[in-house]
């Protein structure tokens, strides 16, 4: 383009100065046919008419020096203009000189773009459920209240026997391990959903591995995360289980996927299960994690499985365990959170 | 040679098989086993004169084609290569990433502040109920309760206050009447709270909620 402009300019100047037309000039004109006919349509000004930079600018122009100064100011190098870095394919430990970039960096192999949606359940939690829970569980402490000191949680031995010397402390009353503390709920520690573990033990996988593959695919479709396969820790003769065989699959769901998964369960799957009473009231590990099970027929109700039901051999669709991990430290509060989310409970509630 | 002649004359009579269309100039050499006194036992491969032992084929369970597809797609190494950004695009991405995280932290902070505001107002309301006079107009000032030896005040003691109440305003009553602190006691009740939220209320927000909140007459 610049070359064309140049020839245009030269042509115009040449014509003005009534210079005898040389062969070369004629050649140029004939090549750019538009120059003669549409001369007035063209922009008269060009980059050549712009005055040259001033002398002091020219004198100061030192790109290398500028880059050095910029580096000194920033303390580090700017990302290069061309691609240079390649994230290592395998993590070789913290002492290796080649470290992968953080997952938020698009050059990282763990980089996931997004989020592209705002889950409804998350919005509901922040707008409705959290304030409700805080209000429901509110305990009033008048000003000036200071909690009385409690006895130590791990009791010591009364030194009635010489064998009590150097023993570890006694376990707490009624427990073999220390139960989690239960601080009063304030605006800082309203129980919330932390993560969901979806787990399926596939007993048929002992005979036929294809059950395991189907279970992996179903779990991956439902949860939108990559699935982990687990091996049997020990042998159980009665079940035909042998140590080291792959028998179960699980998926850890966090963040937006977690909200989506629970929302799907509450809105689309659980209401359509036949004769489903709810989650059993005694479910839970007494530290705020609540679980329930879904049969193979119920797993087929998940929309991802349902729309593509023919993709899976129907007899191989597994049953699942869904474990909801909450930040509540006891089952009572966790159950309150889940019931506010829309998961009903039935039977005697055990805390 | 003699046998060949016989065959030529009437081959179908020798075969002992049902009727076969007979080619006019069919060479009898094509079916030697019919009359061969030493037939090759169980020949499977063509152009081979040796007998190969027939291994019993293993009964293979035929795998479902869907399982094959599932296996293929689960094991397929389609890990995308990492993105490559030039300087300007990397800077642009970094800027947007930081802005997004700043926005998220602002949203989180706003939520926390809102919850704190609600908590504080709840606390103020409960404190007002606690110090409300018997007639609901005046308010009582509980004298500071006597602390224990270690300087702490148990909850029961702190709520009841010290010896005698100072009543300000109202009718002046309030010296430990039945109505004193009744609203506060009611507000502090936790009856039925841990039974859970009613299912009609525990519903996820939607863009298009139904006109009827809950269909109580629904039956399967």
TrEMBL record, chain A:
Residues 247-345 form the Large ribosomal subunit protein uL5 C-terminal domain. GO terms for cellular component: ribonucleoprotein complex; ribosome. Residues 29-117 are annotated as: Disordered. Keywords: Ribonucleoprotein, Ribosomal protein. Residues 44-55 have a biased composition (Low complexity). Residues 57-76 have a biased composition (Basic and acidic residues). The keyword Ribonucleoprotein applies. InterPro entries: Ribosomal_uL5 (IPR002132), Ribosomal_uL5_C (IPR031309), Ribosomal_uL5_dom_sf (IPR022803), Ribosomal_uL5_N (IPR031310). One of its GO terms (molecular function) is structural constituent of ribosome. Pfam families: Ribosomal_L5, Ribosomal_L5_C. Residues 189-242 form the Large ribosomal subunit protein uL5 N-terminal domain. Gene3D superfamilies: 3.30.1440.10. One of its GO terms (biological process) is translation. It comes from the Eukaryota. Belongs to the universal ribosomal protein uL5 family. This is Large ribosomal subunit protein uL5m. It comes from Viridothelium virens.
UniProtKB/TrEMBL annotation, chain B:
It comes from Viridothelium virens (Speckled blister lichen). One of its GO terms (biological process) is mitochondrial translation. One of its GO terms (molecular function) is structural constituent of ribosome. This is Uncharacterized protein. InterPro entries: Ribosomal_mL40_fung. One of its GO terms (cellular component) is mitochondrion.
């Amino acid at each position: 383009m610049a070359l064309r402009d140049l020839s245009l300019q030269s042509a115009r100047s040449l014509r003005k100065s009534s210079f005898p037309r040389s062969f070369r000039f004629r050649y140029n004109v004939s090549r750019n046919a538009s120059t003669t006919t549409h001369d007035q349509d063209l922009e008269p000004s060009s980059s050549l008419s712009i005055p040259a930079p001033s002398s002091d600018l020219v004198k100061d122009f030192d790109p290398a020096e500028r880059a050095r100064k910029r580096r000194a100011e920033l303390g580090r190098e700017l990302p290069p203009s061309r691609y240079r870095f390649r994230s290592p394919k395998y993590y070789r430990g913290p002492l290796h000189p080649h470290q992968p970039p953080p997952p938020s960096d698009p050059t990282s192999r763990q980089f996931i773009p997004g989020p592209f949606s705002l889950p409804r359940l998350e919005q509901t939690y922040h707008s409705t459920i959290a304030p409700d829970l805080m209000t429901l569980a509110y305990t009033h402490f008048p000003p000036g209240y200071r909690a009385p000191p409690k006895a130590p949680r791990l009791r010591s031995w009364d030194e009635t026997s010489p064998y009590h010397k150097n023993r570890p402390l006694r376990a707490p009353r009624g427990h073999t391990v220390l139960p989690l503390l239960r601080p009063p709920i304030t605006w800082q520690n309203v129980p919330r959903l932390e993560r969901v573990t979806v787990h399926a033990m596939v007993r048929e996988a002992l005979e036929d591995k294809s059950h395991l593959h189907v279970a992996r695919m179903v779990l991956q479709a439902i949860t939108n995360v990559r699935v982990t396969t687990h091996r049997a820790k020990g042998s159980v003769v009665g079940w035909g289980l042998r140590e080291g065989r792959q028998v179960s699959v699980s998926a850890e769901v966090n963040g937006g996927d977690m909200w989506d998964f629970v929302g799907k369960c509450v809105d689309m799957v659980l209401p359509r299960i036949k004769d489903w009473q709810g989650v059993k009231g005694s479910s839970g590990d007494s530290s705020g994690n609540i679980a329930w099970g879904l049969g193979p027929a119920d797993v087929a109700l998940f929309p991802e499985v349902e729309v593509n039901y023919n993709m899976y051999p129907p007899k191989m669709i597994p049953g699942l365990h869904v474990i909801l991990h909450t930040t509540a430290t006891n089952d009572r509060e966790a159950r309150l959170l889940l019931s506010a989310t829309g998961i009903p409970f039935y039977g005697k509630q055990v805390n | 040679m003699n046998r060949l002649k016989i065959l030529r004359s009437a081959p179908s009579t020798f075969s002992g098989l049902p009727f076969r269309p007979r080619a006019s100039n069919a060479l009898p050499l094509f079916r030697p086993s019919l009359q061969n006194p030493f037939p090759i036992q169980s020949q499977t491969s063509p152009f081979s004169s040796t007998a190969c032992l027939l291994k019993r084929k293993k009964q293979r369970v035929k795998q479902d084609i869907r399982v094959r597809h599932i296996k293929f797609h689960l094991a397929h190494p389609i890990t995308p290569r990492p993105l490559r950004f030039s300087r300007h695009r990397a800077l642009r991405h970094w800027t947007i990433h930081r802005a997004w995280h700043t926005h998220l932290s602002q949203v989180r902070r706003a939520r926390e502040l809102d919850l704190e505001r609600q908590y504080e107002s709840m606390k103020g309301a409960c404190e007002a109920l606690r110090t409300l006079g018997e007639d609901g107009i005046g308010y009582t000032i509980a004298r500071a309760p006597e602390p224990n030896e270690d300087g702490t005040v148990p909850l029961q003691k702190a709520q009841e206050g010290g010896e005698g109440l100072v009543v300000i305003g109202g009718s002046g009553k309030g010296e430990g009447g039945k109505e004193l602190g009744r609203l506060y006691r009611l507000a502090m009740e936790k009856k039925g709270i841990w039974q859970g939220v009613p299912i009609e209320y525990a519903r996820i927000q939607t863009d298009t909620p139904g006109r009827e909140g809950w269909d109580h007459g629904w039956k399967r």
